[in-house]
Amino acid sequence: MISSKLSVVLGLLALPCARATPYSMVYEYAGPSFFDGWDFYGNFDNLTNGDAIFVDSTQAEDLKLAYVNDAGNAIIKVDNVSTVAFNEKRNTIRINSKDHFDVGSVWITDMLHVPFGCSVWPAWWSQAPNWPVGGEIDTFEGVNQVTMNQMALHTEPGCTQASPVQSSTLVNSTDCSFQANSNQGCVVTTPSTQSYGEGFAQAGGGMFVTEYASTGISIWFFSRSSIPSSLQGNASSIDTSQLGTPVANWPTGGCNIGNFFKPQSLIFDITLCGDFAGNAATFSQTCSGTCYNDYVVGKGSTYDNAYFEVQYVRVYGANGQNTTISAAPMSISRPSTKAVAGVAAAAAALGLASW
Ligand SMILES: *[C@@H]1O[C@H](CO)[C@@H](O)[C@H](O)[C@H]1NC(C)=O
Ligand SMILES: *[C@@H]1O[C@H](CO)[C@@H](O)[C@H](O)[C@H]1NC(C)=O
Ligand SMILES: *[C@@H]1O[C@H](CO)[C@@H](O)[C@H](O)[C@H]1NC(C)=O
Ligand SMILES: *[C@@H]1O[C@H](CO)[C@@H](O)[C@H](O)[C@H]1NC(C)=O
Ligand SMILES: *[C@@H]1O[C@H](CO)[C@@H](O)[C@H](O)[C@H]1NC(C)=O
């Protein structure tokens, strides 16, 4: 039985070196095939009342609103070449991943540029198809000329942020219920002006890491110069315990992740005005004039910065688990709503939405 003894000894020897790398890459959206893994919404923004048309994949290609540039990066943008007449909407993009990712997943996006400017409302986020059932995780979101990213969860009633372990002290709200505070969600602001807008681009962009684990949901933001070496290059496996304190954290103590969250579809979208960016009080904080009349209408040059440039999106699954729900059929609607008006639409959609 020398061999079995030997293997025990080898196993023991291997332990200190074989540090657990809990997550392995399961999908990479990158390069020429970046857009293959997504569905295009193909309808005007009937979710958040934006003055935007989320074009279908054919129009997106024809109008060059979603394409892979010469550097091999995905561009997702607002139409900045068309003149929009009064009472019309402007073309832009909303895409959601065909695959859904269950608890035990991490998604990372590396971006060089994020959309910003008056009337612009971009987000990189995720949602379960029967929202608010199954929850929503907003990793990146901002409006108009704000300078810092905001992160949030939106859930059914009963989920709150309690005892987080996070580096941000900018906590805006702790009740994640879509019924509380006009569906503001439990919001944490990233305390860095390199996390949004011009500051993000000037710093060479950066990386957002979202961990959806049974112990809690966590988000890390790394500006280009502070990306940890373990995430540089082609990291086929990652260990989130090595990433330091997350900028936002919602532990399962205040929110039972298993109860409130279901497999998530990843989403990039850019809408214009609508319930959040177009809210008069919010708009006037960083922009002048009227959201629709003075920006959406007319020439598009105001949207020259309204684009995502994405080097990749990578999804990781917990080792030993299959956390990918492959190519789930597109549901009829997945409303993300920030205001009361949208909640009514969301409620109306619930009966229709399905896997
Ligand atoms: C959240 O709080 C931060 C810091 O006080 C503030 O700058 C930001 O505007 C707030 N965000 C919202 C959506 O209220
Ligand atoms: C990273 O590794 C994956 C899996 O091995 C591979 O499919 C992908 O092309 C690599 N990406 C880059 C940018 O090298
Ligand atoms: C539209 O914006 C892009 C950057 O997203 C810029 O390169 C281009 O020059 C703009 N087009 C026009 C007609 O302004
Ligand atoms: C994971 O499970 C899904 C069904 O939900 C299946 O389609 C897929 O092939 C599985 N992936 C692996 C790697 O086993
Ligand atoms: C939005 O439009 C799509 C496509 O017409 C439709 O299927 C969906 O039910 C609409 N959603 C809402 C909330 O009105």
TrEMBL record:
Keyword entries, A-Z: Signal
Keyword Signal: yes
Signal peptide per UniProt: 1-20
Alphabetical list of Pfam families matching this protein: GH16_XgeA
Superkingdom of the organism of origin: Eukaryota
GO biological process annotation, one example: glucan catabolic process
PROSITE patterns assigned to the protein according to its UniProt record, in alphabetical order: GH16_2
Protein name: GH16 domain-containing protein
Organism encoding this protein: Heliocybe sulcata
Native organism taxonomy: Eukaryota, Fungi, Dikarya, Basidiomycota, Agaricomycotina
